[in-house]
Amino acid sequence: MILLPRGNPVKENIDPGKVQLPDALQKLQKGNFTGYLRFDTTRGVGILIYDKGRLISALFEGASEREIAYDAIALIFECSLAGNANLNIYRLSSELAMSIHALLHGQVLYKGQEVKLLDIRGLLGKMKEDKITGCLRIYTSDHIALIFYREGSPLGFFHDGSTDLEKSAENSLSVAKLPGAKIDVLTAQVSEEATMADLQASADIRALWQKAHENVTRDKRSREAEVARSLEEREKDRRQKVLGLLKGVAEKSLGRIGAQLADKEFTRAMNGQGVVSESVLDDFYQRLGKAAKLVAGPSTVKQMVDEMQRGIKALMKTD
Amino acid sequence: MDWNIVQLVLWLIAGIVSFYFSIGNARVWTSIAVGFGLILLGELLPQAMPFLPGASSPQIEAMSYILGTISILVMSHGFQEYYVFSRTLELEGNKLLVYVATLGVIFASMIFILINPDPTPSTLKVIRVVEDTNWVFLSLINIDLIRKIYINVKDSPISKGFIAFMLVFIFIFLWRGSELYIQVYDLANPDVSRLFPFRYELSQICSNVGNLLAGLSVAGTFIYLARLLR
Question: Which positions, given as ranges, span the membrane (chain B) (predicted)?
Answer without folding.
Answer: 6-23, 28-45, 65-84, 96-115, 162-182, 202-226
